[in-house]
Here is the input.
Amino acid sequence: MDLSLSTRSEDGPEGPRTVVVVGGEIDVYTAPKLREQLIDLVSSGQYFLVVDMEGVEFLDSTGLGVLVGGLKRVRAHEGSLRLVCTQERILKIFRITGLTKVFPIHTSVEEAVAATD
Amino acid sequence: MAVVELLLSPLASHVRTARLVSVTAARRAGLQDDLVDELRLAVGEACSRAVGLHTRHGIEALVRVRIEDGTAGLVVSVADSGPPVGPMPDDVSAGIVDGGDLEVADAADDLVDPDVALALLIGLVDSATVEPGSAGTTVTMRWPLPHDAQGPGATQFSRD
Here is the structure.
Protein backbone atom coordinates (compact mmCIF):
# COMPACT_ATOMS: atom_id res chain seq x y z
CA MET A 1 0.00 0.00 0.00
CA ASP A 2 1.24 3.46 -0.85
CA LEU A 3 1.56 6.28 1.62
CA SER A 4 -1.51 8.35 2.48
CA LEU A 5 -1.33 11.73 4.18
CA SER A 6 -3.88 14.20 5.50
CA THR A 7 -3.72 17.08 7.94
CA ARG A 8 -6.17 18.84 10.21
CA SER A 9 -5.99 21.33 13.04
CA GLU A 10 -7.09 20.64 16.61
CA ASP A 11 -7.14 23.00 19.54
CA GLY A 12 -5.07 22.04 22.57
CA PRO A 13 -4.63 23.75 25.94
CA GLU A 14 -1.51 25.52 24.67
CA GLY A 15 -2.89 26.43 21.26
CA PRO A 16 -3.64 24.77 17.95
CA ARG A 17 -1.90 21.56 17.00
CA THR A 18 -1.54 20.25 13.46
CA VAL A 19 -2.43 16.60 13.25
CA VAL A 20 -0.79 14.72 10.38
CA VAL A 21 -2.56 11.43 9.73
CA VAL A 22 -0.24 8.95 8.03
CA GLY A 23 -1.32 5.66 6.52
CA GLY A 24 0.30 2.88 4.50
CA GLU A 25 3.99 2.24 4.11
CA ILE A 26 6.79 4.65 5.01
CA ASP A 27 9.91 3.38 3.31
CA VAL A 28 12.77 4.58 1.15
CA TYR A 29 10.36 5.07 -1.77
CA THR A 30 7.50 6.88 -0.01
CA ALA A 31 9.36 8.72 2.78
CA PRO A 32 10.18 11.75 0.58
CA LYS A 33 6.43 12.48 0.35
CA LEU A 34 6.15 12.61 4.15
CA ARG A 35 9.32 14.66 4.34
CA GLU A 36 7.88 17.23 1.92
CA GLN A 37 4.67 17.39 3.93
CA LEU A 38 6.53 18.06 7.18
CA ILE A 39 8.73 20.69 5.53
CA ASP A 40 5.67 22.40 4.02
CA LEU A 41 3.98 22.54 7.43
CA VAL A 42 7.02 24.04 9.13
CA SER A 43 7.53 26.47 6.25
CA SER A 44 3.94 27.67 6.72
CA GLY A 45 4.53 28.33 10.42
CA GLN A 46 3.03 25.19 11.92
CA TYR A 47 5.53 24.17 14.56
CA PHE A 48 3.39 22.01 16.84
CA LEU A 49 2.80 18.73 15.09
CA VAL A 50 1.11 15.49 16.07
CA VAL A 51 1.85 12.62 13.69
CA ASP A 52 -0.85 9.97 13.92
CA MET A 53 0.78 6.69 12.90
CA GLU A 54 -2.06 4.34 13.76
CA GLY A 55 -2.66 3.66 10.07
CA VAL A 56 1.00 2.97 9.26
CA GLU A 57 1.53 -0.56 8.07
CA PHE A 58 5.28 -0.41 7.58
CA LEU A 59 8.06 1.87 8.81
CA ASP A 60 11.77 1.54 8.16
CA SER A 61 14.86 3.53 9.10
CA THR A 62 14.30 5.93 6.20
CA GLY A 63 10.93 6.80 7.71
CA LEU A 64 12.55 7.23 11.11
CA GLY A 65 15.04 9.61 9.53
CA VAL A 66 12.23 11.71 8.08
CA LEU A 67 10.46 11.92 11.44
CA VAL A 68 13.71 12.95 13.12
CA GLY A 69 14.23 15.54 10.39
CA GLY A 70 10.74 16.90 11.16
CA LEU A 71 11.52 16.97 14.86
CA LYS A 72 14.70 18.94 14.28
CA ARG A 73 12.85 21.44 12.10
CA VAL A 74 10.07 22.13 14.62
CA ARG A 75 12.56 22.31 17.49
CA ALA A 76 14.43 24.99 15.59
CA HIS A 77 11.25 27.05 16.07
CA GLU A 78 10.67 26.00 19.70
CA GLY A 79 7.95 23.64 18.49
CA SER A 80 7.21 19.98 19.12
CA LEU A 81 6.54 16.79 17.20
CA ARG A 82 4.53 14.15 19.02
CA LEU A 83 3.73 10.69 17.72
CA VAL A 84 0.60 8.64 18.18
CA CYS A 85 1.25 4.92 17.96
CA THR A 86 -0.01 1.83 19.73
CA GLN A 87 1.10 -0.79 17.19
CA GLU A 88 3.67 -3.04 18.78
CA ARG A 89 5.54 -3.77 15.54
CA ILE A 90 6.06 -0.06 14.93
CA LEU A 91 6.87 0.73 18.57
CA LYS A 92 9.49 -2.01 18.49
CA ILE A 93 11.41 -0.08 15.83
CA PHE A 94 11.45 3.04 17.97
CA ARG A 95 12.65 1.00 20.93
CA ILE A 96 15.43 -0.79 19.04
CA THR A 97 16.75 2.50 17.72
CA GLY A 98 16.50 4.28 21.05
CA LEU A 99 14.12 6.84 19.58
CA THR A 100 11.60 6.38 22.38
CA LYS A 101 13.98 8.72 24.24
CA VAL A 102 13.69 11.30 21.48
CA PHE A 103 9.98 11.31 20.57
CA PRO A 104 7.04 11.72 22.92
CA ILE A 105 4.82 8.77 21.94
CA HIS A 106 1.13 8.86 22.83
CA THR A 107 -1.68 6.35 22.70
CA SER A 108 -4.26 8.68 21.14
CA VAL A 109 -4.48 11.92 19.19
CA GLU A 110 -6.52 13.41 22.03
CA GLU A 111 -3.74 12.67 24.50
CA ALA A 112 -1.07 14.10 22.19
CA VAL A 113 -3.04 17.28 21.50
CA ALA A 114 -3.69 17.78 25.22
CA ALA A 115 -0.03 17.19 26.16
CA THR A 116 1.99 20.15 27.41
CA ASP A 117 5.75 20.56 27.42
CA MET B 1 15.45 -26.70 -0.90
CA ALA B 2 13.80 -23.85 -2.78
CA VAL B 3 15.53 -20.74 -4.02
CA VAL B 4 14.33 -17.35 -5.22
CA GLU B 5 16.87 -14.89 -6.61
CA LEU B 6 16.24 -11.28 -7.45
CA LEU B 7 18.47 -8.85 -9.28
CA LEU B 8 17.36 -5.30 -8.61
CA SER B 9 18.25 -2.10 -10.34
CA PRO B 10 19.22 0.31 -7.55
CA LEU B 11 15.85 2.05 -7.42
CA ALA B 12 13.98 2.91 -4.23
CA SER B 13 10.75 1.49 -5.68
CA HIS B 14 12.34 -1.95 -6.00
CA VAL B 15 13.01 -2.16 -2.27
CA ARG B 16 9.30 -2.74 -1.90
CA THR B 17 9.45 -5.35 -4.65
CA ALA B 18 12.13 -7.19 -2.69
CA ARG B 19 10.06 -7.00 0.50
CA LEU B 20 6.97 -8.37 -1.19
CA VAL B 21 8.82 -11.26 -2.83
CA SER B 22 10.66 -12.12 0.39
CA VAL B 23 7.46 -12.12 2.41
CA THR B 24 5.72 -14.31 -0.16
CA ALA B 25 8.63 -16.78 -0.15
CA ALA B 26 8.75 -16.76 3.66
CA ARG B 27 5.04 -17.49 3.97
CA ARG B 28 5.34 -20.28 1.42
CA ALA B 29 8.18 -21.74 3.47
CA GLY B 30 6.02 -21.67 6.61
CA LEU B 31 7.78 -18.93 8.58
CA GLN B 32 5.66 -17.94 11.57
CA ASP B 33 3.78 -14.64 11.35
CA ASP B 34 5.74 -12.56 13.85
CA LEU B 35 8.96 -13.59 12.13
CA VAL B 36 7.47 -12.65 8.76
CA ASP B 37 7.05 -9.10 10.11
CA GLU B 38 10.66 -9.15 11.25
CA LEU B 39 11.81 -10.43 7.86
CA ARG B 40 9.82 -7.76 6.03
CA LEU B 41 11.57 -5.00 7.95
CA ALA B 42 15.02 -6.60 7.89
CA VAL B 43 14.98 -7.29 4.15
CA GLY B 44 13.71 -3.76 3.58
CA GLU B 45 16.55 -2.33 5.63
CA ALA B 46 19.17 -4.45 3.87
CA CYS B 47 17.84 -3.51 0.45
CA SER B 48 17.39 0.19 1.32
CA ARG B 49 20.98 0.26 2.47
CA ALA B 50 22.26 -1.49 -0.66
CA VAL B 51 20.19 0.64 -3.05
CA GLY B 52 21.19 3.80 -1.17
CA LEU B 53 24.87 2.92 -1.40
CA HIS B 54 24.65 2.25 -5.13
CA THR B 55 22.73 5.47 -5.69
CA ARG B 56 25.08 7.65 -3.66
CA HIS B 57 28.15 6.25 -5.34
CA GLY B 58 26.71 6.13 -8.84
CA ILE B 59 27.00 2.37 -9.04
CA GLU B 60 24.74 0.94 -11.74
CA ALA B 61 25.37 -2.69 -10.83
CA LEU B 62 22.36 -4.70 -9.69
CA VAL B 63 21.67 -5.54 -6.06
CA ARG B 64 21.39 -9.29 -5.56
CA VAL B 65 18.82 -10.78 -3.19
CA ARG B 66 18.77 -14.53 -2.59
CA ILE B 67 16.11 -16.30 -0.56
CA GLU B 68 16.80 -19.92 0.27
CA ASP B 69 14.45 -22.22 2.10
CA GLY B 70 16.36 -25.30 3.22
CA THR B 71 17.61 -27.37 6.12
CA ALA B 72 19.37 -24.31 7.56
CA GLY B 73 16.03 -22.51 7.78
CA LEU B 74 15.11 -19.52 5.71
CA VAL B 75 18.25 -17.69 4.63
CA VAL B 76 18.06 -14.30 2.92
CA SER B 77 21.19 -12.60 1.63
CA VAL B 78 21.48 -9.14 0.12
CA ALA B 79 24.68 -8.34 -1.74
CA ASP B 80 25.75 -4.88 -2.85
CA SER B 81 28.70 -3.55 -4.82
CA GLY B 82 29.24 -0.48 -2.66
CA PRO B 83 32.17 0.57 -0.49
CA PRO B 84 32.94 -1.63 2.50
CA VAL B 85 30.78 -1.37 5.57
CA GLY B 86 32.19 0.63 8.48
CA PRO B 87 32.00 -0.06 12.21
CA MET B 88 28.54 -0.22 13.74
CA PRO B 89 27.45 2.84 15.74
CA ASP B 90 27.20 2.19 19.48
CA ASP B 91 23.97 4.16 19.76
CA VAL B 92 21.63 3.85 16.80
CA SER B 93 19.53 6.83 17.85
CA ALA B 94 22.61 9.06 17.79
CA GLY B 95 23.27 8.03 14.21
CA ILE B 96 19.77 9.05 13.25
CA VAL B 97 19.38 12.16 15.37
CA ASP B 98 22.78 13.56 14.49
CA GLY B 99 22.52 12.58 10.87
CA GLY B 100 21.48 15.87 9.32
CA ASP B 101 22.40 19.51 9.40
CA LEU B 102 19.41 21.80 9.17
CA GLU B 103 21.55 24.72 8.10
CA VAL B 104 22.18 23.02 4.81
CA ALA B 105 18.86 21.26 4.51
CA ASP B 106 18.48 19.32 1.32
CA ALA B 107 17.02 16.02 0.23
CA ALA B 108 19.89 14.04 1.72
CA ASP B 109 19.46 15.41 5.23
CA ASP B 110 16.87 12.99 6.42
CA LEU B 111 18.44 9.93 4.93
CA VAL B 112 19.66 7.53 7.54
CA ASP B 113 23.29 6.56 7.50
CA PRO B 114 23.64 3.12 5.86
CA ASP B 115 25.32 1.85 9.01
CA VAL B 116 22.24 2.79 11.02
CA ALA B 117 20.08 0.68 8.73
CA LEU B 118 22.50 -2.17 9.33
CA ALA B 119 22.49 -1.63 13.08
CA LEU B 120 18.69 -1.72 13.12
CA LEU B 121 18.74 -4.89 11.07
CA ILE B 122 21.20 -6.55 13.43
CA GLY B 123 19.12 -5.45 16.39
CA LEU B 124 16.08 -7.05 14.82
CA VAL B 125 17.37 -10.36 13.58
CA ASP B 126 18.89 -12.89 15.97
CA SER B 127 21.00 -14.44 13.27
CA ALA B 128 22.49 -11.85 10.94
CA THR B 129 26.00 -11.59 9.53
CA VAL B 130 27.66 -8.79 7.60
CA GLU B 131 30.53 -9.83 5.34
CA PRO B 132 32.51 -7.00 3.79
CA GLY B 133 34.30 -8.12 0.63
CA SER B 134 36.51 -6.52 -1.96
CA ALA B 135 33.55 -6.04 -4.30
CA GLY B 136 30.89 -5.05 -1.78
CA THR B 137 29.09 -6.27 1.30
CA THR B 138 26.81 -9.24 1.78
CA VAL B 139 24.25 -9.19 4.56
CA THR B 140 22.94 -12.65 5.43
CA MET B 141 19.96 -13.22 7.69
CA ARG B 142 18.56 -16.50 8.88
CA TRP B 143 15.24 -17.47 10.43
CA PRO B 144 14.20 -20.88 11.77
CA LEU B 145 11.46 -22.74 9.95
CA PRO B 146 8.96 -25.05 11.63
CA HIS B 147 10.47 -28.17 10.06
CA ASP B 148 13.74 -27.36 11.85
CA ALA B 149 11.99 -28.52 14.98
CA GLN B 150 11.99 -32.09 13.69
CA GLY B 151 15.76 -32.33 13.47
CA PRO B 152 18.66 -32.12 15.90
CA GLY B 153 18.49 -29.14 18.21
CA ALA B 154 14.72 -29.11 17.90
CA THR B 155 14.09 -27.09 21.01
CA GLN B 156 16.24 -24.26 19.70
CA PHE B 157 13.77 -23.62 16.92
CA SER B 158 10.56 -24.50 18.67
CA ARG B 159 7.62 -22.37 17.54
CA ASP B 160 6.43 -22.04 21.13
In short: Chain B touches chain A through 33 residues (CB under 8 Å). Residues 33-56 of chain B form the longest helix (24 residues). The beta strands of chain B are 2-8, 63-70, 73-79, 127-133, 136-143. Chain B has a mean pLDDT of 82.
